Amino acid sequence: MEHGFEQNPQSEFQNSDEMRRLHWRCRRGLLELDIVLGRFVEGGYAELDQGQLAALDALLDMPDTVLWDMITGKEAPPQDAQQQNLLERLRAA
């Protein structure tokens, strides 16, 4: 919270280099992953706080097959609670 109001991450990054970078990072080699990540960015990204943004970055650093297997429940999620929360939100996207 700055200057007496809460800032919305989406409004800060919309049409910015950071938002373009995020969209690029969400383009993956698996179509299913592209779809899930795209829906999440369009519908849930604006609600993320700084800790969740860092967790999303960590998830996006993972190989496609590992990330997809965690989203689908074929692989155990990471121990990080923020990443687990984001995986649940990605499943719902």
Describe the structure.
This protein is 65% helix and 0% strand. With 93 residues, the chain is mostly helical. It has one domain (9-92): Flavinator of succinate dehydrogenase (DNA polymerase, domain 1, Orthogonal Bundle). The termini are far apart.
List the helices and strands and how they pair.
Layout: H1 9-13, H2 17-25, H3 31-44, H4 50-60, H5 64-72, H6 81-92
Order of helices and strands: HHHHHH
Proportion in helices:
55-70%
Class derived from helix and strand content:
mainly alpha
Mean pLDDT comes to 80
| Cα-to-Cα separation, first versus last residue | 28 Å
- The CATH C-level class name: Mainly Alpha
- Unreliable stretches covering 5 or more consecutive residues: 1-10
Label the CATH architecture: Orthogonal Bundle
- What fraction of the residues are assigned to beta strands by DSSP? under 5%
Q: What name does the CATH topology carry? A: DNA polymerase, domain 1
* Number of self-contained structural domains: 1
Put simply, the count of helices is 6
Radius of gyration from CA coordinates = 13 Å
What are its keywords?
mainly alpha, DNA polymerase, domain 1, disordered N terminus
Short recap of the structure:
Helix content is about 65%, strand content about 0%.
